[in-house]
Amino acid sequence: MNIPDGIPVISGGADTQCGLLGMDTHLSEVGAVGGTTTPIQAVIQKPILDPDRKTWTNNYLINNYWVIESNVGYTGRSTRWLNEKLKSQLGYEKLDAQAGKISPGSNGLMTFLGPHLFDSGPPYWKNDKLSDLPVQPTIIGSYDFSVATLARAIMEANSYGVKLNLDYLETVSGLNFSYIKFCGGNSRSETWMQIQADVLGIPVIIPEVHDASAIGAAVLAANGINHYADMNKALSHMLRKGKTFEPRSEYSAKYKQHYSKWLITREKLGRL
Question: What does DSSP say about strands 180-183 and 30-33: parallel, antiparallel, or unpaired?
Fold first, then answer.
């Protein structure tokens, strides 16, 4: 690649960290970038080393700040798999709308297609196994279900995976998260984000531009060429907050039971 003389080249950051920046994530806040997988990172003051070595710790894009990460594993990939199996008969928007009409708990249907509790040691999620257990991908609970029911069950399982990893991040970091910022392709689904808020019991805040990693990279570039006086100016001019999904208490109460059953079931499947 030949870059003409005089063109500035700015060193950026990793995709998830750019996503955090693109959501204007501050110290002690947490953000998730939902795509094929869903990494979750909290911004911290000092590096934290997990004694069980399940999380990653790395420096952040802003000086003297760090991030600690857990990762849900395959999430968006399962919704893509479902959409591809339908051969575009519905598409993501219609699939999202239909899933929104299914009641919490997906009529007893549960999926285990990738979401797991992160473990930073090898072999990571090398095989498409049931969460962090050595069982192949599983759909359980019914043999007679609609596409919409399966779509919602996948969204719920992915949301359970976020809760599992977010709870672990709170344990390791000592932080208590009262909301989570969420970006990436998964955040385009309003049904999914509302389920996520209901499962977590806290607000889910999405940016106006879902591809926040691209915005974060643009902020770094603008700051690098001194287009703005400093990083804070760049952030205030270039970022826009999107919709906030508030948890619904009656749904959150139901999801506490569904989440507990999902955890118990995955443990039982691991003993087969």
Answer: parallel
pLDDT bracket for residue 87 (50, 70, 90): low
Residue 165 to residue 207: CA distance in whole angstroms: 22
Q: Are 116 and 135 in contact, with CB atoms under 8 Å apart?
A: no
* pLDDT above 60 (res 88): no
Tell me the CATH number at 137: 3.30.420.40
Distance CA 159, CA 137 (A): 17
Domain annotation covers residue 238:
yes
Residue 7 in domain:
no
157 exposure class (CB count in 10 Å sphere: 0-12, 13-18, 19+): buried
For residue 37, is it within any domain?
yes
User: Domain containing 190: what range?
Assistant: 15-270
pTM: 0.93
- Pull the structure tokens for residue 12: 């950026």
